[in-house]
Design goal:
The protein has 125 residues and is α+β, with helices and mostly antiparallel strands. The protein contains one helix and nine strands. The chain is elongated, with a radius of gyration of 21 Å.
């Protein structure tokens, strides 16, 4: 019984300390993708530099580690084109994966947030 009381008091004290600790303000950084843009045509197996506008990032970015994934038809596929890079770089080279032809592809740049490129086309080899 005494253990339960002590545990309850310590838990309450820890919770009060956590709630009283102010968090540093964080800014969501959503750099727009510049390439590929609408009208871009990629071919399976080619290498391209995905670029995004990295000018003016906020001071307190929540997550600076980037990932680029492929979307088609409004759904993000499991295909990771690039991973574990700084979103402050502004570009990263990727290889076009083996996918079906389509004009409804997009890239999503993850890091602090996820943002999509305009639709572009991917053609088979």
């Amino acid at each position: 019984m005494q253990f339960t009381t002590i545990f309850t008091l310590l838990s309450a004290a820890a919770l009060a300390a956590v709630q009283a600790t102010p968090l540093a303000p964080r800014d969501v950084y959503v750099p727009p993708i510049l390439y590929p843009h609408a009208g871009t045509v990629w071919t399976v197996g080619q290498r391209h530099n995905v670029t995004w506008d990295n000018s003016g990032p906020p001071v307190n970015i929540t997550n600076k580690v980037g990932r680029i994934m492929l979307r088609q038809g409004g759904l993000t596929t499991p295909l990771i084109l690039a991973d574990n890079f700084s979103i402050l770089l502004g570009r990263i080279e990727v290889t076009v994966p083996w996918v079906t032809d389509g004009s409804d592809y997009q890239l999503v740049l993850f890091g602090d947030s996820g943002n999509f490129s305009p639709d572009f086309t991917v053609n088979g080899a």
